[in-house]
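Structure in, sequence out. Go:
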């Protein structure tokens, strides 16, 4: 008897129909479809996004494995998965390289004053030397502090070192990792990292401990010449505190790929905040993302069939 799985991602037929011993069917994330899918009791695994997990699991009593299409899983009730003994994997390895490239792009945009030049381009204005910023920042020899030394943080570290940056990390659970000159932990460690970093990057998951970890107090620990880049979750940053820090020059600049309220309302003060670059939650997307996602799904299906260790296992 074949194992049965459902997926909501656009994977090729070589996977959906080409793996012996597995039947894969595609469904939409419309509740009316997955709640009424026939033979729900025969489904062994699900490949879905985190937003539908808690609801969809109510209708599929015999699921043994859940493959998330996301990296973050803050919307997933882990207690339910534990109580049902469901194997849980995410897709963090799919996104980390692209996110790391996006971080370096944002660092360069901020350090080289590109928003100023782009604004001039929109106006078809070629300024003379006296009208140009003279405070471009070289990366080589500077310090970057990465909050979160996991998959994404490690990929950022690789690229930062290529630019000649000294790489330091903060992580409560990782004490040492290749690519980092030192990893700090605890309140004192965080304070030291922030005080010595020219660039601060957040790549932490959202937990009770990390929510609003960037706030009035921690922003005051940073250099006035420092830049902040957030590619984690909007909940990591106290946005009012960040707006204040940028308006008063407490830090020099920031870049956000995610915010607490998405889509960001037109009336939100973040839009008008000086020295702030905003992108609409696109750091993880690149032309190789779909290939990497499909490859991960195929590998994990084979691991699942053979009883091997799953990639990106959470539970």
């Amino acid at each position: 008897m074949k194992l049965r799985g459902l997926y909501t991602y656009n994977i090729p037929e070589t996977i959906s129909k080409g793996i012996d011993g597995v039947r894969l069917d595609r469904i939409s994330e419309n509740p009316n479809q997955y709640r009424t899918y026939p033979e729900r009791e025969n489904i062994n695994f699900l490949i879905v996004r985190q937003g539908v997990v808690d609801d969809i699991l109510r209708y599929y009593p015999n699921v043994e494995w859940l493959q998330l299409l996301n990296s973050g899983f803050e919307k997933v009730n882990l207690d339910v998965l534990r109580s049902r003994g469901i194997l849980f994997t995410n897709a963090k390895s799919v996104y980390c390289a692209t996110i790391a490239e996006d971080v370096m792009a944002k660092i360069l945009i901020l350090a080289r004053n590109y928003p100023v030049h782009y604004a001039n381009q929109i106006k078809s204005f070629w300024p003379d030397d006296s009208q140009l910023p003279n405070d471009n920042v070289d990366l080589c020899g500077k310090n970057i502090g990465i909050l979160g030394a996991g998959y994404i943080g490690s990929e950022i570290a690789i690229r930062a070192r290529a630019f000649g940056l000294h790489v330091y990390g903060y992580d409560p659970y990782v004490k040492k990792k290749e690519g980092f000159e030192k990893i700090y932990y605890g309140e004192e460690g965080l304070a030291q990292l922030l005080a010595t970093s020219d660039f601060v990057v957040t790549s932490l998951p959202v937990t009770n401990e990390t929510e609003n970890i960037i706030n009035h107090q921690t922003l005051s620990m940073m250099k006035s010449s420092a830049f902040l880049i957030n590619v984690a979750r909007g909940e990591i940053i106290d946005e009012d505190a960040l707006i204040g820090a940028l308006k008063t020059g407490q830090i020099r600049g920031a870049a956000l790929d995610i915010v607490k309220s998405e889509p960001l309302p037109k009336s939100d003060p973040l839009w008008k905040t000086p020295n702030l670059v905003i992108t609409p939650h696109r750091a993880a997307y690149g032309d190789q993302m779909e290939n990497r996602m499909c490859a991960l799904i195929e590998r994990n299906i084979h691991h699942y069939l053979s009883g091997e260790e799953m990639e990106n296992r959470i539970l």
